[in-house]
Write a structure and sequence with these properties.
CATH architecture: Beta Barrel
Number of helices: 3
Shape: elongated
CATH topology: Porin
Radius of gyration: 23 Å
Number of domains: 1
Number of strands: 21
Strand content: over 45%
Distance between the termini: 72 Å
Largest sheet: 17 strands, mixed
Order of helices and strands: HEHEEEEHEEEEEEEEEEEEEEEE
Length: about 375
């Protein structure tokens, strides 16, 4: 290898290590909210909601789905744009959040299996869920590294975590329910880096793409105190998932969720009721790489749902807040205010939920979700 080639390789390696540390990408690689009812309350009741999302968040909640059910969610996949300036080894940056493209993020079907094995045999569910997403483009027209200056520099990073869950939940005595599940993860990773020094002596042109799979497990508990049945507490753990093939992202971190909801009735002459919820999700550290380093990450959510009773059914009104901190070099926090509403008609077994989130870093999130409960 000649001296120019060695210098180019050394410089490329340094740039690759330096730039991601500066680009503070909103960190949803672990913590993308899949949409639906919980999104509007900051994700506060994902661990206790009785729907097909439970196959992914907490399978114990499936125990209380006493009829066949189907759920769909369609939402945007947030992205970001980062501008780099200043010195290459310590650049200044400005990152703007954007709404991104829209995609199906959850599809689930649940079926009580008591008809096959007798009453009280629990509920089985299968679900497709997008649980992590990052898409950032970092650019610079004047990235200095004396005596060189990089022009037309660009670094694209995208990662998408998709989970296929087969889960089962069953009610026990004394207010307890348990759930177990098998989780197959598909992890897509793409990155590319290009740039040319102003004197033309160094050209960067690197890229890689992978789509790897792995298998994990999930277990969960749900508890409603018999003497205080307006409280519900949920707890679930998903194992780490090792992926095959990728050098950039070879393990999805394990996840621990704990949450609780409180229901109070009697408002407006008994027509209305309110749900209050809070939840914490702990993502454990994962394997580090040049672009997708994974440190531990603790996500909080809290919110409220006020259900307005009308002659035709119910209209849930929702508000919440979620905090998503950074989980590695090159990533930043993503905190958001959330709100939304739903429709639950009396005469037809269909539900509709619209949810929004307004993150502090720019852009907005929107989810439309539909549910159907078979008679």
């Amino acid at each position: 290898m000649n001296s120019i080639a060695r210098s180019a390789l050394s410089l490329a390696t340094t740039v690759l290590g330096a730039v991601p540390a500066a680009a503070q990408v909103p960190d949803l690689l672990n913590a993308l909210d899949a949409g639906g009812r919980a999104m509007a309350t900051g994700g506060a009741n994902a661990a206790t909601n009785v729907d097909t999302y439970a196959a992914y968040y907490n399978p114990a909640a499936l125990a209380y789905l006493d009829t066949r059910a189907a759920d769909l969610a369609y939402r945007n996949l947030p992205k970001s744009q980062t501008t780099l300036t200043g010195q290459r080894n310590d650049p200044d940056f400005e990152t703007d959040g954007q709404s991104g493209e829209r995609s199906l993020t959850h599809a689930g079907y649940a079926m009580p299996i008591r008809t096959l094995f007798g009453r009280g045999s629990g509920t089985l569910a299968i679900a497709y869920t997008v649980g992590g997403y990052v898409n950032d483009r970092a650019t610079s027209s004047n990235l200095s590294d004396p005596p060189l200056t990089f022009q037309n520099y660009r670094l694209d990073r995208e990662a998408r975590s998709t989970f296929y869950s087969l889960s089962y939940g069953k009610a026990m005595s004394a207010g307890f329910a348990y759930g177990i599940g098998l989780v197959v993860a598909s992890q897509k990773v793409d990155y590319s880096e290009t740039g040319t020094s102003s004197d033309g002596s160094v050209t960067l042109d690197a890229s890689d793409s992978s789509n790897d799979t792995g298998v994990g497990a999930i277990i969960g508990l749900l508890y409603t105190p018999p003497s205080q049945n307006n409280f519900t507490f949920g707890l679930s753990f998903r194992s780490p998932i090792s992926l095959s093939g990728s050098d950039q992202y070879d393990r999805i971190p394990g996840r621990l969720i704990a949450g609780g909801t409180y229901r109070r009735e009697g408002y407006r002459q008994g027509k209305d009721y309110v749900l209050l919820g809070a939840q914490v999700s702990q993502y454990f550290s994962g394997a580090s790489s040049e672009y997708f380093q994974r440190d531990a990450q603790t996500v909080f959510g809290f919110g409220a749902e006020y259900n307005v009773g009308i002659d035709a059914g119910r209209i849930p009104l929702r508000v919440g807040f979620t905090t998503v901190p950074s989980a590695g070099d090159g990533y930043g926090s993503r905190n958001a205010a959330t709100f939304g509403f739903g429709l639950r008609p009396n005469r037809i077994p269909v539900g509709l939920d619209l949810s929004w989130a307004v993150p502090e870093g720019g852009g907005y999130d929107f989810s439309i979700a539909a549910s159907y409960r078979f008679k």
